[in-house]
Write a structure and sequence with these properties.
single chain; 99 residues; alpha+beta; Translation Initiation Factor IF3; 4-stranded mixed β-sheet; 4 strands; 40% helix
């Protein structure tokens, strides 16, 4: 899992504020095709929002952890049924602050 400083997380939360969810997770949960789509979205966008249709808070938290550990990404925020995830691209678009 990618580690970020609190300042970098704050910066990325601000950047994600205007984003729309690009991946929706349905009742089937984290299938291989959903993980593949999340990976492709992170590769092209770096910072994405993911919307989850169901589940309780613990299930959503487990999904966020699984996404981040599997794809080597950083969890930015989990509010309600929305997850924000970041992964540095090969050619970064977002320039993170140092602290």
């Amino acid at each position: 899992m990618l580690n970020l400083t609190p300042g970098q997380r704050r910066f990325l939360r601000a950047q994600a504020h205007t984003l729309n969810p690009v991946v929706m997770i349905g009742d089937a949960g984290l299938s291989a095709s959903v993980m593949k789509e999340i990976g492709a979205s992170l590769k092209s966008h770096e910072l994405i929002k993911i919307k989850i249709a169901g589940g309780d808070r613990e299930q959503r938290e487990a999904m966020l952890n699984e996404i981040c550990t599997t794809l080597d990404a950083a969890p930015i925020q989990h509010i309600g049924k929305t997850l924000i995830v970041y992964k540095t691209a090969e050619k970064p678009v977002l320039v993170l602050p140092k602290s």
